[in-house]
Specification:
heterodimer, A: 396 residues, alpha/beta, Rossmann fold, 2 domains, 8-stranded mixed sheet, two-stranded parallel sheet, 14 helices, 16% strand, B: 190 residues, mainly alpha, 79% helix
Chain lengths: 396, 190
């Protein structure tokens, strides 16, 4: 019996290797979209609405500079963006791009008052509205908070998703580490801070699980059941999901040095934002200027942005209409975990819908172009894939 | 080496290495370290002074690296002892695949938790901060030497020069954007 189990493990490993040797095609960010505006390396992406009359107030998703926005549209059945479209929203997202040496002097002000502000203006122009909903994710949530405080007239609703604003905590390892970093030396040497430098810090958070157990677990989850014809498909689906996540985790853009310098020093080291002492281009960011409805969404088991770093926001703003949602999930699970589609997105939608109407009006706008989202493309058969042995990644 | 020399061979190999290194560092700082910090003189004083400073930069990095390695080694030993304690009785008798799996799970859980505990201490953060700082100093020094001794004599562009151009470009783009914005505003107000 024991010997048979060992043999099964070997078979599972062999099967896993066979799948890797004939890698399945996988894609990320497949929800139909178009680039409607660009500035330097930043692109503003508009997702094609899938209802005839979307809610009038569009949503702009602001993602972090670390990693890429497509975690919100990782695959059709794990897509926050697709879910929002299905709920009838008009959705935009900022793709910050991959900064290069020429971008080392870009400041936080350039990102918030430049790229983000210009994107908001463009959406308002195209939608014919006077303000929009900002949905800031992680560091993008921090940017959104800064923006909402500086340009409150352009933000109708503010939704923050696992966004840190109060950095003075010892519950997050990153918060502890950041305090001892000599940020000036890092920026002065690198100029553009390598994404791999940050990735190595993320891996160090739990090195054994992230560098060993994750890969052991991948092979362990392979099913070996020669009598089950659907088993192979389930295995391939599992590997595809694994590879999508693996791609996202290590798709880490480098960071514009001056932006990294100010973010680390003002936020992580001196915690100026929550104290209303942080400045962008000489202008103080006063969180009391935030008067619009606020939805602050957190993940209970977030090891990167502990809830302590997010919950202070509700107290710091002047909004009378404010709500907090905490889900029993982690920092990434909130986008791609089982609760994301079933609980997180529906609750955000429920909160947003009555607040996404034009002031004093209840009519919804009609868009000229909308599409019905296709069913996920039929996966190629094993035979077809064998003819195309090289892994091909369709990256937007 | 005897106990009277301050080194104990009863301790683990790494602790002895650490003690030896600490002693070496003291001797270095009192002797060679002082020599390399001496002001240079003569026609090539600028270059030689910069080059000599590289020794200190490297020694600082090496010392910080030793501190970090030593701490990691202690945590490894601690985790290993914990695994031994947890598995001492379980691993007796016939070794089955289930037992291998159990051992792996215990090993993973113990190492992961022990390291996570260590990594969230201020002590580790401080060590990592120092190591990183010395690494940046060392890398910066190497690049300066590369620029000074190879790129400039060969009339090749240096990173410093490229950064200067990047800065000019950034300021220029920002000015153009601001002027474009002002022109647009003026047009709209007409």
């Amino acid at each position: 019996m024991n010997g048979l189990n060992l043999l099964d493990d070997q078979k599972k490993f062999r099967l896993g290797m066979e799948i890797f040797l004939n890698p399945p095609e996988f894609s990320v960010g497949t929800t139909p979209s178009e680039v409607i505006f660009g500035e330097d390396k930043m692109k503003l992406i508009h997702y094609i609405p899938i209802v005839e009359k979307p809610h009038p107030i569009p949503i702009l998703i602001v993602y972090a500079l670390v990693n890429r926005y497509y975690i919100l549209d990782l695959q059709p059945d794990k897509s926050v963006i697709k879910k929002l479209l299905e709920e009838g929203f008009d959705v935009y997202v900022i793709d910050w791009g991959y900064p290069s040496g020429a971008d080392r002097y870009l400041t936080l002000d350039d990102y918030v008052n430049g790229y983000l502000n210009n994107s908001v203006d463009k959406i308002m122009e195209l939608s014919g509205v006077e303000n929009i909903t900002l949905l800031g994710v992680c560091q993008g949530g921090t940017f959104s908070v800064m923006y909402a405080a500086l340009h409150p007239e352009k933000v109708k609703n503010l939704v923050t998703l696992v966004a840190p604003v109060d950095f003075d905590t010892d519950k997050g390892i990153l918060n502890i580490w950041a305090k001892t970093l000599d940020v000036d030396k890092i920026v002065d040497y690198y100029g553009i801070v390598p994404g791999d430098f940050l990735n190595s810090a993320f891996l160090l958070l739990d090195p054994f699980r992230l560098m060993i157990d994750k890969y052991v677990g991948m092979f362990d989850r392979i099913e070996y059941n020669p009598d089950d014809t659907t088993c192979q498909l389930r295995n391939e689906d599992y590997i595809k999901n694994f590879l999508r996540m693996e791609k996202w985790i290590f798709d880490s853009p480098d960071q514009a040095g001056e932006t990294f310098r100010q973010f680390m020093k003002d936020c992580y080291q001196n915690n100026l934002l929550i104290k209303n002492e942080m400045k962008l281009n000489g202008k103080k960011i006063n969180l009391k200027n935030i008067t619009m409805p606020l939805l602050n969404v957190m993940a209970e088991f977030d090891h990167l942005v502990p809830t302590d770093t997010s919950k202070s926001l509700n107290e710091a703003v002047s909004s009378s209409d404010k709500e907090t949602l905490v889900f029993p999930t982690g920092h990434i699970g909130i986008f791609v975990g089982s609760k994301s589609q079933k609980e997180v997105c529906p609750k955000i939608s429920l909160w947003l819908k009555p607040r996404s109407l034009l002031n004093g009006k209840t009519e919804e706008k009609t868009v000229q172009a909308y599409v019905e989202l296709p069913e996920p493309a039929e996966e190629k058969t094993k035979e077809q894939r064998k003819n195309n042995r090289r892994s091909k990644v369709n990256k937007k | 080496m005897s106990e009277s020399d301050g080194l104990s061979m009863e301790k683990s190999g790494f602790e002895s290495t650490r003690e030896f290194f600490d002693m070496w560092l003291k001797v270095y700082n009192a002797t060679t370290g002082r020599l390399v910090e001496m002001p240079a003189i003569g026609p090539a004083r600028e270059k030689s002074e910069k080059m000599m400073k590289g020794f200190s930069t490297f020694v600082n990095l090496y010392a910080a690296g030793m501190d970090s390695s030593s701490n990691f080694q202690s945590v490894f030993m601690d985790a290993m002892h914990k695994v031994q304690e947890k598995t001492a009785t379980d691993m007796e008798g016939e070794i089955s695949p289930e037992k291998y799996k159990d051992f792996y799970n215990i090993w993973m859980e113990t190492y992961s938790e022990t390291f996570k505990e260590f990594l969230k201490t201020g002590h580790f953060a401080s060590d990592m901060g120092k190591l990183n700082s010395h690494l940046m100093d060392f890398q910066k020094y190497n690049r300066e030497m590369l620029e000074e001794n190879y790129l400039k004599p060969m009339n090749l562009p240096t990173k410093t020069e490229i950064d200067e151009i990047n800065k000019e470009l950034y300021i220029l783009k920002k000015t153009v954007k601001e002027l474009s914005r002002q022109i647009k505003e003026l047009k709209e107000n007409k």
